[in-house]
C-alpha cells in the first residue's frame, strides 16, 4: 500500500529557472531543467497533498493531480507563491535568477555604431527567504535547495541560517556531475540536526525520500 502521510496538507513547490527580460525578445536564464522540482510536486501529490507547483519555463509536462502555475520572472514567481499560501509545507527547488535587468528596453536593442549595450542589474526578491520569514503565513516546514559548485555543505549551512529555512537540500551542480538537466542527483540534507548525505539516486527517488522526510518532521 502507498502511504499517504500528506492527506489534507497543502504543499507549495517552486521549480525550473526564471527568465528575466532584457528587451521584448531577449532574456537571461539558467540551465535548470525543473526535473527535481517537478518530481517533488509529483511525490507530494502521491503522498496525498494538495499541491501547487509554481514553475518557470521548462520542457516538462504538468504533473497530473497538481495545480500548476506557469511564470517567467522571479517577481512573478514570488507573487504566485504568495497567492498559494497558506500552506503546511513549502519546497523551493527553482533556480531563481539572482538579478534582473534594471531597465528592460521597451523595443528590441539594435546593433549600431554606439557598440554593445551595457546592462545594469538589480537584485531579485529572495522567494525562499521571504516565505521563511513571513510574519503571518510561514509554512510549518520550509525547504530550500542549494545548487553549488564548491564548498557544497559549508555554503548550505550558511544558507540555512541566512534564509531561515528548516532544511536545505544541497547538491553539487558542477558540470562534471551532470545534475543540471540529468536524471540523477546526489544530495546532502542540511538542518539544525546536522548533515545527512544520501546515495546518488534518481531525482524521482530523491523526491520521494524528501517527501517522506518532510512528512515525518511535521
Ligand atoms: O542563494 P541561492 O540562490 O543559492 O539559494 C537557493 C535557494 O533559494 C533555493 O531553494 C532557491 O529556490 C531559493 N531562492 C529563491 N529566490 C531567489 C533565490 C533563491 O527562492 N531569488
Automatic annotation (TrEMBL):
Binding positions for CTP per the UniProt entry: 98, 108, 125-128, 145, 159, 163
Annotated ranges, domain DNA/pantothenate metabolism flavoprotein C-terminal: 6-216
Binding note for cofactor: Binds 1 FMN per subunit.
Enzyme Commission code: 4.1.1.36, 6.3.2.5
Chain positions covered by the region annotation Phosphopantothenate--cysteine ligase: 11-218
Cofactors that this protein relies on: Mg(2+); FMN
Stated family: In the C-terminal section; belongs to the PPC synthetase family.
Record's protein name: Coenzyme A biosynthesis bifunctional protein CoaBC
Gene name of the encoded protein: coaBC
